[in-house]
Write a structure and sequence with these properties.
The complex is a heterodimer of chains A (370) and B (133). Helix content of chain A is 45%, strand content 23%. Chain A is α+β, with helices and mostly antiparallel strands and 370 residues long. In chain B, strands 2-1-3-4-5 form a 5-stranded parallel β-sheet, with helices on both faces. The chains are: A alpha+beta (370), B alpha/beta (133).
């Protein structure tokens, strides 16, 4: 064996390798372990005890080794150890572990086979480091990237819609001014004025819609309150009483499965208003509209289902567009193509989702998960 | 200037725009007749019916197609459009969208002559009709 050369001036003293190892391990919070696969025994160093919050009198055992890994990663850990032990395969992975006190944390774990002089495997050894801080930051970062990406694409989309809708109005105005220059008779010029009125009305409407959409972003920061479905429903029904009476619509409610949730009250009103209005507005020509609205919980999630017997919509044809802005599918003059777009955005801004199922001539069902 | 185009066609759901274009086309005497459809489906129905009757002289020589329309939008129209309805005619996609992906997508259709961004300039309109007649 090579003799350690001392490079310390003055009194020659061998470098205490153990000191450095210990300090480095402390500094980096790195625990180490060893499994003697012949005697079937496990050993830990003291930092392993520290990281795993193990009582000092705990005696590590091979059999209980997997219990130090988070439940969902135990199969993974077992495979890593098995491959290392049986096939001599080294590993260097990020894996979720759990302390004696039940705290889960992310660790970087390295394992290598231990060989004797005859190249026979006699054990497995490794080190692991608590990297939970870094890992949590990584998750947070990943999360923000996803949020930003989706917001960005929404914004870009929104910008195109805005530009499209404003451009169609301004281009009409431009055409009108061109024509005003070229037209000769007063009657013709007067007709152009009526066109200006049309453009001005559409422009107004567009800006109203944009306002509505823009407030979704700011409103999602609004305070959530306990919202009772029944209260919101009564409020909404009062506001659309006229339409309901005109169409002789029947609305059947069942809020027994879930009578209230924590939500932004204004959103709940808007969501219910949009879905109920749609259900009545797009009624089947041959029958009175009948709408069922039901709330319940399932797998710890809160649901609201709005089901109608209306004209339905061909989803194979319009499925990807039904929640798009300014997408209209029927001949109704009052279809504006904004309601469902806003509904979807409101729901998603609070972390929920909305899905649609529909059969032409039978009806449409909207399912919301809050 | 050449003799006017016999039949022009506008497929667009914006009534103001259609009004203005019709006035303009009439005023500049660009086309003898103008067909107007408020969405793609109405136009497809007309083309199919006309082809079936073999009345090719009732088919337009210039078509202006909008993209955002109810019932059947411009894209769905392009998917279903039978190029036989438009042999020797020019089809222009006319939209307020300046989304580059819309422009690229429209130009990939062999039936599309060009993409025109609204507002349609009077000179552009005249050129389109002049090159079609």
């Amino acid at each position: 064996m090579k003799k350690e050369a001392s490079n310390t001036p003055g009194k020659a003293e061998p470098i205490d390798k153990f000191f450095y190892l210990k300090e480095t391990a402390e500094l980096t919070k790195t625990g180490s372990w060893y499994i003697d696969t012949q005697k079937f025994e496990a050993f830990w160093n003291n930092i392993t005890y520290e990281i795993l919050e193990a009582p000092l009198d705990f005696i590590p055992a091979v059999e209980s080794g997997l219990s130090h890994y988070a439940e969902e990663h135990r199969d993974y850990a077992a495979k890593l150890f098995f491959d290392c032990y049986k096939k001599g395969k080294e590993f260097d992975v990020e894996i979720k572990m759990v302390t004696f006190k039940g705290t889960e944390f992310w660790a970087r774990a390295i394992g290598k086979p231990v060989l004797n002089g005859d190249n026979e495997q006699i054990g497995v050894q490794g080190v692991f480091q608590n990297i939970d801080d870094v890992k949590q930051k990584e998750f947070a970062l990943q999360n923000s990237v996803e949020t930003i990406t989706s917001q960005n694409s929404r914004l870009l989309n929104f910008a195109y819609i805005v530009s499209h809708n404003l451009r169609s109005q301004t281009s009409n105005l431009q055409l009108i001014t061109h024509l005003l220059d070229s037209l000769n008779t007063v009657e013709e010029k007067m007709e152009m004025l009526s066109n200006i009125k049309g453009v001005s009305d559409s422009l107004n409407k567009t800006i109203e819609h944009l306002n509505e959409v823009a407030t979704i972003q700011t409103n999602s920061k609004q305070e959530k309150r306990v919202v009772r479905f029944e209260d919101t429903y009564l409020l909404v029904v009062t506001s659309i009483q006229q339409i309901i009476a005109n169409q002789k619509a029947e609305i059947i409610t069942d809020f027994s499965g879930l009578d209230s949730i924590n939500y932004v009250p204004a959103y709940m009103e808007s969501i219910m208003l949009n879905l109920l209005t749609n259900a009545v507005k797009y009624k089947h020509p041959d029958r009175k509209p009948e709408v069922h609205i039901k709330t319940f919980t399932q797998n710890e999630q809160s649901f609201m289902v709005v089901k109608d017997n209306g004209m339905g919509i061909d989803l194979s044809r319009y499925g990807d567009q039904i929640f798009g802005m300014y997408k209209t599918f029927h001949y109704n003059d009052d279809a504006e193509g904004v309601g469902l777009f806003i509904t979807k955005n409101q729901i998603e801004s609070l972390g929920g989702s909305i899905a649609v199922d529909s059969t032409v001539d039978e009806g449409t069902t909207f399912t919301i998960i809050f | 200037m050449n003799s006017p185009v016999k039949i022009g066609c506008i497929i667009d759901d914006d009534n103001t725009y259609v009004n203005l274009m019709s006035t303009l086309i009439k005023m500049k005497k660009l086309s003898e007749k103008l067909l107007v459809f408020n969405n793609g489906q109405e136009a497809i129905d007309y083309f199919e019916d006309t082809l079936q009757r073999g009345a090719k002289d009732e088919l337009p020589q210039v078509i202006f197609l909008d993209l955002n329309m109810p019932i059947m939008n411009g894209w769905q129209f392009l998917e279903q459009f039978d190029s036989e309805s438009c042999s020797g005619c020019s089809l222009y996609v006319v939209s307020s969208s300046i989304n580059p992906s819309d422009i690229d997508r429209a130009k990939r259709y062999p039936t599309v002559t060009d993409y025109i961004t609204k507002p349609m300039e009077i000179t552009t309109l005249e050129e389109v009709f002049a090159s079609a007649s």
